[in-house]
Structures are given as C-alpha cells and as structure tokens.
Amino acid sequence: MLEDKNPQRTSLEELGEFGLIEHLTQNFELQRPSSLKGIGDDAAVLDFDNKKIVVSTDMLVEGVHFDLSYMPLKHLGYKSVIVNLSDIYAMNAMATQVTVSIAVSNRFPLEALEEFYAGVATACKLYKVDLVGGDTTSSNKGMIISVTAIGMGNEHEITYRSGANPNDLLVVTGDLGGAYLGLQVLEREKEVFKVNPNSQPDLEPYSYLVERQLKPEARKDVVELLKKLEVKPTAMIDISDGLSSEIMHLCKHSEVGCNLFEDKIPLDPTVISTTEEFKMDATMIALSGGEDYELLFTIDQKDFDKIKGNPNLTVIGHMTEKTAGAHLITRANTKIAITAQGWNSFKG
Ligand SMILES: [Mg+2]
C-alpha cells in the first residue's frame, strides 16, 4: 500500500479534519486563470467568461473499482483524477478544475493519504487542472473516492453522444484491451502470491498492460489535436466500459446504426501475445474489456483527409441508418450483431 518499506505512521486523529485537509492540500498551487478562489473558503469561485461549463463526477469504491493489494495509493490518486478528466475531454472540452473527496478508515495513517494526494498532484500538474475543493471523512468499511471534474468549451465545440449521422466515419484513439489484460495479469500474480508469499512476480513482459491498468492517461492531446486539424467530431464518448457498449451508446443517442470492422481494431502487440497466453480472444477483450480511457468519435467523411495517417487515430468503421443495426464485420467477413456487453461494475 505504501511505497516506503519502513513508513512513519501518523494517526489521522492527531490532525483533525480541518488540519488534515489543510495539510494534504497545502502544496497545490492554482494554475488556471478561471480558478479565482480554490481551497480555503466555504466554496471555490470560478470565472469562465462566456464559455460553457462541463461537469462530470465519478465514485470509486475499494473492492469494486480498485484493489489496494496491488494498486499503489499514489497511482490510485492519479487514476482517480484521470478517469474524470477523460469524461471532460470526451465532450471535446478542456478540463480546468477538480474536487477530490475521500472516505477512509482511521487505521489509514496520514502518510498513506499523502501518497494518494501525491498522485492527485501529479495528475493536476500534468493535465493543468486545479484542485479547488473536496472533503475527507471516515469510513468504517473500505476506501471511497469521489472526484468531480469541471471543464469548459465554446458552445460550438462541445460534442455530445447524439450528433452522429449515417455515413460518418467511426474513429478510435490509441489501442484497446490493454487495461483489462493488465488487471488479469495483476489478479493472477495476486493468486500466486497468496499460495507462495516468497514468489517474486515478473511483470516486465506485461509492463505496458500493467501501466494501462494502474496508470492510465486521458486523451487531452487528442482534443488539442482535433482542434489543430480543424476537425469537429459529430459525436464523441470515452471508452471506460469497452468498445461495444460505447458504440451502443453512440448509436442509441444519435439514432444510427454502425458497421465495425474487426481487422481495423487497433491492438498493441502485447495485447495480442497476452490474449494468446490467456487463451482469450483479442477482439472480444477490445470489445468488452474497458478502462482504456481512449476516445471514440465520429466524423463527417469530408474530414477524413485531415486525420488520414495520424498514428493516434484509427478509422474502425462507419455509421449506418438506424434500421440497419450495429454490427461487427469479422475477418472472415461475417456480420455479427454488437451487444452492449461492456464491462459492468455490478457484475460479480
Ligand atoms: Mg464517459
């Protein structure tokens, strides 16, 4: 849980609630002109001039969304911010502020929370967002994290799930399936460790996958890239649950169908080799794996030349009339209906 092997343990009670927040947030400096007042009053004050405001919130629960036996707290702090920023970028907006609230048992020492906030601070710095509020409270079960992300954009740039049209191209960023396989690798090592606590896991061959799971990135760069290329997506969503369920969301909200081509789905070589090792199907993992935090969007065909050849962007299909439905066209050229079997947090 803690990176230091001989950690100091300061009890949370020593600081009290207000002292704790002050202690954990004292080194956060405001970076955004829109953050007029951050932490330190009853509420933050933000000023966005004439921009539209985008807000998204997410909750992470120990044992459901993360496992502290292999998730270092610093990574957890980082990831908690990243998954929320991803939702702001999925609106084609720029993330500007976050609030972070946590509930922990008082068995957590102060040093553990400092690790968590070090991860929050790294994400804030890298993505240029300000921490402007939050709360800490006690939990008598597991750790609970709630992050709210705030962003802004011009009205004509904000992109909804609902704008896709038949014949639009379906585009995905990066590659898929890595985060889910990283989780499988970590779960396997955890089981090995339970049987033999002296075993030294060799995660090196899986480093890309483990990083995708423990330290994901949000595609701020893609929002900036699209602006530079002068491409306004017609619809957009981030891939938190798996490609198939995100495609279903776009189809439903835009009232269109879709043809997705199996041979176009971008996969890292490690994803292909590890699915072979685990006797899994790489396409299936990309479709339902989840947690990749890539962006999935549609563009008008006339914009194809602007994105063509960009290594960050892959055209994986096109939208159709709603009546045609949503289908995967396999390598063998058979047509299979796509179902929303994306990763489900309520699944046992
Ligand atoms: Mg989302």
Automatic annotation (TrEMBL):
**Does the keyword section mention Lipid biosynthesis?**
no
Coiled-coil stretches: none
Q: Which residue intervals define the domain PurM-like N-terminal in the entry?
A: 40-152
Pathway annotation from the record:
Cofactor biosynthesis; thiamine diphosphate biosynthesis; thiamine diphosphate from thiamine phosphate: step 1/1
GO molecular function term, any single one: thiamine-phosphate kinase activity
Xref: Pfam families: AIRS, AIRS_C
Q: List ligand-binding residues for Mg(2+) 5.
A: 241
Binding residues annotated for ATP, in chain numbering: 117, 134-135, 161, 240
Question: What keywords were assigned to this record?
Answer: ATP-binding, Kinase, Magnesium, Metal-binding, Nucleotide-binding, Thiamine biosynthesis, Transferase
Query: Which residues are involved in binding Mg(2+) 3?
Result: 42, 87, 238
Top EC class, one word: transferase
Stretches assigned to the PurM-like C-terminal domain: 166-322
| Chain positions recorded as substrate binding sites | 65, 291, 343
Annotated residues for binding of Mg(2+) 2: 58, 87
Give the reactions, separated by semicolons, that this protein catalyses: thiamine phosphate + ATP = thiamine diphosphate + ADP
- Role, per record: Catalyzes the ATP-dependent phosphorylation of thiamine-monophosphate (TMP) to form thiamine-pyrophosphate (TPP), the active form of vitamin B1.
Q: State the family named in the UniProt similarity comment for this chain.
A: Belongs to the thiamine-monophosphate kinase family.
More about this protein: Reaction mechanism of ThiL seems to utilize a direct, inline transfer of the gamma-phosphate of ATP to TMP rather than a phosphorylated enzyme intermediate.
| Name of the molecule in the record | Thiamine-monophosphate kinase
Q: Which organism is it from?
A: Flagellimonas ochracea
